[in-house]
Amino acid sequence: MKLLVTGGAGFIGSHVVRRFINAYPEYSIWNLDALTYAGNLENLSDIEHQPNYQFIKGDITDKEFISSLFEKEQFDGVIHLAAESHVDRSISGPDAFIQTNVVGTANLLNAAVQCWKGNFDGKRFYHVSTDEVFGSLGPEGKFNESTAYDPRSPYSASKASSDHLVRAYHHTYGLPIVISNCSNNYGSHHFPEKLIPLIINNIKNSRPLPVYGKGENIRDWLWVEDHARAIDLIYHQGNNGETYCIGGNNEWKNIDVVRLLCKLMDEKLGRAAGESEKLISYVTDRPGHDARYAIDATKLKTALGWEPTQPFEQLLAQTIDWYLANEEWLEHVTSGNYRSYYEKQYTR
Ligand code: NAD
Ligand code: DAU
């Protein structure tokens, strides 16, 4: 099995690559990543010398490159995670999202169809998507596989477009596909532009903790290794052409996540109880901020026996420990471009 993972140097991709490298030594795992600001080979330093691992630096928006890579390497399968992934960046600059998430996905689909030439035996194209394609929930109900699409940010609209393309290539060309739509992940190697690692980093440095609006928006948090385990199961056992929703069954208001992080970090850093909460700073809300996400993952449980790991507080504490033990990683990813992004986003 020669498997191409795109975006393997990013947050979730690095967990997927690590899982596959360790679980399937007989597979050859190829990690294709453009190493944007979000991609970091340090995320894979523990497995980079494994004999079944190969890294290729390349951009999925480069049609010729992608097409010749497929012709040359004749992959058996693709797990496609490469994307521009941050909603706030999609608001300030949507073009990169349309290029990578829509055009890049189309390039991969075209290359797979051309390379496999209708002989799809043993082939599979797995597209990793998000629950944000379903839009925003009120206080009741959850997203599931039959929820209508209603994306509301340039990021989610670009992911929705790519989902539609993947399904269209299945129906039109017979491409064997699976898609999953997952809720918010947390865990190690998460880039500190996203809520949880940003708050951990700011508490550590006693900087203001920016909470958008009133902090009442709700997200359904899933441990990233649970997501990687679900991807493994779906890649190997999911039904051709089907979609699977993946979620943590773990809904939290943003302000409560921030308060929990403050409490856990006060304990770990030996600060007085309540010390870090004083850093909370309510800032201008995200435009079009989706109110609530929640996933009903019954299909995945019934079909493939997958369930999320709990409890949240314990895994969040483990996540904090990882950030405190990996200062060098944090320093590397928060130098340079990150600083100018941060100034622009939070000094308004
Ligand atoms: P990330 O931003 O941490 O990583 C994205 C990776 O893709 C990076 O390594 C980056 O270098 C690479 N990349 C970006 N543009 C590229 C291009 N043009 N060509 C090649 N590589 C490129 O993202 P993540 O949070 O790990 O998300 C991975 C995937 O999972 C995305 O498709 C995202 O939509 C989806 N997803 C994320 C979450 C979440 O909570 N983070 C939840 C559900 C789904
Ligand atoms: O639901 C899955 C999605 O989760 C993925 O598809 C995206 O790639 C991923 O980035 C994530 O999107 P969110 O927008 O939900 O994640 P983020 O960490 O940016 O924000 C989580 C919540 O916290 C959201 O309601 C906005 C809020 N927030 C975020 C930041 C960065 C703040 O209040 N302050 C902040 O500084």
Overview of this protein structure:
α1 (11-23) packs across α7 (224-237), α2 (63-73) packs parallel to α4 and α6 (195-204) packs parallel to α8. The chain has a domain at 2-186 and 222-246: NAD(P)-binding Rossmann-like Domain (Rossmann fold, 3-Layer(aba) Sandwich). It is built from 12 helices and 13 strands. The chain is an alpha/beta fold and 348 residues long. Helix content is 43%, strand content 16%. β1, α1 and β2 (28-33) form a beta-alpha-beta unit. Strands 3-2-1-4-5-6-11 form a 7-stranded parallel β-sheet, with helices on both faces. A two-stranded parallel sheet has the order 7-10. The mean pLDDT is 97. The protein is globular and about 65 Å long. Nicotinamide-adenine-dinucleotide binds at residues 6-7, 9-13, 33-36, 38-39, 59-61, 81-85, 100, 104, 128, 130, 159, 182, 184-185, 191.
Give the terminus-to-terminus CA distance.
Answer: 50 Å
Q: Which regions contain 5 or more consecutive residues with pLDDT less than 50? A: none
CATH top-level class of the domain at 2-186 and 222-246: Alpha Beta
Q: Give the strand line-up of the largest sheet.
A: 3-2-1-4-5-6-11
Q: How many DSSP-defined strands?
A: 13
Quickly count the helices: 12
CATH homologous superfamily grouping of the domain at 2-186 and 222-246: NAD(P)-binding Rossmann-like Domain
Shape verdict: globular
Share in helix: 40-55%
* Percent of residues in β-strands: 15-25%
**Oligomeric form of this entry?**
single chain
